[in-house]
Write a structure and sequence with these properties.
The structure holds 2 protein chains of 2 kinds.
Chain A lengths: L2 H23 L3 H26 L3 H28 L11 H22 L5 H23 L3 H21 L5 H29 L5 H10 L1
Chain B lengths: L1 H36 L9 H11 L10 H20 L15 H21 L3 H32 L4 H10 L6 H17 L18 H4 L5 H26 L11 H28 L5 H28 L1
Classes of the chains: A mainly alpha, B mainly alpha.
Chain lengths: 220, 321
């Protein structure tokens, strides 16, 4: 494997990780959405590059799915939801962004330290892709934990799924059926999320997840 | 033996004089560009020289209740900054002092200068001085680790913290596509803006009490002292620009002091890059608004995390290679 091949795959996977940090940092909802779309685009590029390197044409299908669904349709749909709810200009107060970012760096370091010994005899870019993918997944979870807004939580979930796809393409021989079914289950999850956000807005007049907690406490 | 030593010494002395001479010019170019961008005529680009001269010949009016720290601090600030600037390769590597041109040493020298200035700000005893000093310390507490992350990343790439060696390495070795270098580039720009008190962090042209950082510390200085401090600030900007050019645009830096035309060529290229950087800084400053002091921590914190991430990514790619 030439150095440039590795460099490009490092660049794309690392770029996804950096964008995960941007998602963690960003407090404007519309910029958050744009960052997510950018991450999905980088994911598509990373998958396409893997298809090229691994000579696995079916990965091109995965790349196209990522590009069409996650970089175009889902952000557009989320933007529609946000415009309908009138929150597309909202700034979400992110508390303790410094601590969150440091925790994120810790998680990224953890996933590298965890996966490098396990995958000792795999190819270099596979090892790196797997480590970065785990980091992206964990950062998606961290985003979901630290945010109150339902929309940001959806974006955290979707970015988590970006990490899963990256892991799947890094591992050789992932069947296409699995990828397509994952893509569609994500789509269905997205539909459920969309309905959930609207119902929540209808009932509580807010998309702050804490309203649910307060509601439950009130009932008990 | 003596003949061998001659070119490095000559180049070293030349550079030390050059950085002092060029520093006010850079400030002048930045001010002129900003004025033109705001549709003003602006002062001549040589105005800073005249300002410094005017301050030099003016009488010193020291504040009451000040101790010797107040009088010594300007010279400490200037001399440490000058020594640091002497260590940075501007147009050529292989100067006399380059054996000591360690990036960590340069960061340390600048920290000494900052310490002296903050001490002087507090020595005056006015509320502005203390406020400026405390803000400066807050900014430096975040900017310095970020700068060290830049140093670590480069050290991992070039296997040295020696600035001249890093510049030579980056100029001549194929380094491929390095994501870490791009992240470090952003971190370094954040540090450069913070350390020199440029616009998103501090406004060098304001005396508005809510926003001052650097100006608040030197509010009580006058005459020769003020001239020395202003010169040191200009010198620091040149120093940061030179480090930036060394690390991210090292092409054309002269590595051997053999032929005079090559040195001249490197010199002209350096001046062009420096002034271009000044214009770019002015354009950037015109495009963004100054941020509140409380957001500075977030801005620099993001820079620091990007630097950390750069180290991590480089570590990851070195680990599997």
């Amino acid at each position: 494997m030439t150095n440039l091949t590795f460099d490009i795959s490092h660049f794309l996977a690392g770029g996804m990780l950096v964008l995960s940090f941007v998602i963690l940092y960003q407090d404007r909802l519309s910029s958050l959405l744009n960052t997510f779309a950018m991450q999905a685009t980088v994911l598509a590029a990373a998958v396409a590059w893997q298809a090229q390197v691994q000579h696995a044409p079916h990965l091109y299908v995965t790349a196209v799915i990522a590009l069409v669904f996650k970089a175009a349709i889902i952000p557009a749909a989320l933007r529609r939801i946000m415009v309908k709810l009138g929150i597309h200009r909202e700034i979400e107060p992110v508390v303790g962004v410094g601590v969150t970012l440091l925790a994120g760096v810790g998680l990224a370091a953890l996933s590298i330290l965890l996966l490098y010994p396990v995958t000792a005899d795999a190819q270099a870019f596979t090892r790196e892709d797997l480590a970065f993918a785990l980091a992206v997944v964990l950062l998606g979870l961290l985003t979901m934990i630290t945010r109150h807004n339902a929309i940001s939580q959806i974006i955290g979930f979707m970015s988590l799924e970006n990490g899963l796809v990256l892991a799947a393409t890094g591992a050789n021989g992932m069947p296409l059926v699995v990828e397509i079914s994952v893509a569609f289950s994500i789509l269905i999850a997205f539909l459920i999320f969309g309905i959930f956000v609207f119902r929540m807005r209808e009932r509580f007049d807010t998309v702050d997840i804490h309203a649910l907690d307060r509601f439950r406490k009130g009932r008990a | 033996m003596a003949l061998d030593l001659l070119p490095p010494i000559a180049a070293q002395i030349g550079q030390m004089i050059l950085v002092i001479l060029v520093a006010p010019l850079l400030i002048g170019v930045i001010r002129k560009t900003k004025a033109r961008l705001l549709c003003r005529v602006g002062a001549s680009i040589f105005q800073p020289y005249l300002d410094l001269w005017k301050l030099m010949v003016k009488e010193i009016v020291p504040a009451h209740n000040t101790s010797w720290i107040y009088r010594v601090a300007p010279y400490v600030v200037f001399s440490t900054t000058w020594v640091a600037a002497a260590l940075v390769p501007t147009f050529a590597t292989g100067l006399m002092f380059h054996g000591a041109a360690d990036l960590v040493a340069i960061v340390g020298l600048l920290a000494t200068a900052r310490f002296a200035l903050a001490l002087a700000g507090m020595d005056v005893g006015t509320s502005f001085g203390g406020l400026g000093a405390s803000r400066e310390m807050m900014i430096s507490a975040l900017a310095e680790p970020a700068m060290l992350m830049v140093v670590f990343t480069l050290a991992m790439l070039a296997h040295t913290t020696h600035l001249a060696a890093i510049a030579t390495f980056l100029a001549h070795q194929p380094i491929g596509l390095q994501l870490s270098l791009m992240l470090v580039f952003l971190t370094f720009i954040a540090v450069l803006l913070a350390e020199n008190g440029r616009i998103p962090i501090d406004n060098p042209a304001t005396h508005l009490e809510l926003t001052m950082v650097h100006e608040a510390m030197i509010l009580e200085y006058s005459g020769r002292h003020l001239a020395v401090i202003e010169a040191a600030a200009a010198l620091k900007l040149v120093l940061y620009f030179s480090v930036f050019l060394c690390l991210f645009a090292p092409c054309g830096i002269v590595t051997s002091l053999e032929s005079v035309p090559a040195i001249l060529e490197g010199f002209v290229l350096y001046m062009a890059k420096l002034l271009l950087g000044g214009v770019a800084l002015a354009i950037g400053e015109t495009c963004v608004a100054k941020m509140r002091v409380f957001r500075v921590a977030e801005f620099l914190g993001a820079g620091l995390v990007l630097g950390l991430l750069a180290v991590l990514l480089l570590f990851a790619s070195e680990g599997v290679r």
